[in-house]
Amino acid sequence: MMIKKLWEKYVNRETVSYLIFGVLTTVVDLVIYQGALLLGIHYMAAQWIAWACAVAFAFVTNKFFVFESKSTQFSVLMRELITFVGGRLFSGVITALLLAALVEGLSCPEMVAKLITEVFVIISNYLISKLLIFRKH
Q1: Which helix (H) or strand (E) holds 114?
Q2: What single-letter DSSP state applies at residue 67?
Q3: Do the Cβ atoms of 24 and 57 come closer than 8 Å?
Q4: Cα dist. 46→21, 87, 130 in Å?
Q5: How many C-alpha atoms does 58 have within 13 Å on its Cβ side?
Q6: Could you give the dihedral angle defined by the CA atoms of residues 70, 16, 117 and 127, in that order, rounded to the nearest 10 degrees?
Q7: Percent above pLDDT 70 for the chain
Q8: pTM score, two decimals?
Q9: For the range 45-52, what are the long-range contacts, defined as Cβ-Cβ under 8 Å and sequence gap of 24 or more?
Q10: Cα-flanking dihedrals φ and ψ of residue 83, to 5°?
Q11: Are 110 and 96 in contact (CB under 8 A)?
């Protein structure tokens, strides 16, 4: 009975669409990160290039499809964009620190370290978006 209640509470259109677009955002991030590494770009620069592309993709998909924030009023759009980028910057800095610790401190391969950090990114970004950025008023 408890599992059914938890399922009904947390498995809904919003969480499923966040999962789908979160996976797509992660794919954007990982493909660009790997591509940058293959071009010989330092892993930390590759991280920030991939981050910028993933944030742009995630903002559009989170705003319109996940959290269904339909307002296109300039002040609302700017507030959402600034808080979204700020929240993603927070998780991006934590990701960069974790990435450096794994690669430099633990000699973890760059792509493996990136995959490990994605767990933190997905969870923290959902909570930041849900509770701070696209909250229902």
Answers
A1: helix 110-128
A2: S
A3: yes
A4: 22, 20, 28
A5: 30
A6: 50
A7: 96
A8: 0.79
A9: 47/92, 47/95, 47/96, 47/99, 47/114, 48/92, 48/96, 51/88, 51/92, 51/95
A10: -70, -35
A11: no
The kind and range of the H/E element at 8 are: helix 2-10
Q: What whole-number distance in Å separates Cα of residue 121 and Cα of residue 59?
A: 14
Token pair listed for 57: 């993709």
CA 129 – CA 132 distance, rounded (Å): 6
Total residues found in the chain within this entry:
137
pLDDT tens digit string along 27-81?
999 999 999 999 999 999 999 999 999 999 999 999 999 888 888 899 999 999 9
> pLDDT tens for residues 64-78?
998 888 888 999 999
DSSP letter assigned to residue 71: -
User: What is the DSSP-derived secondary structure letter of residue 40?
Assistant: T
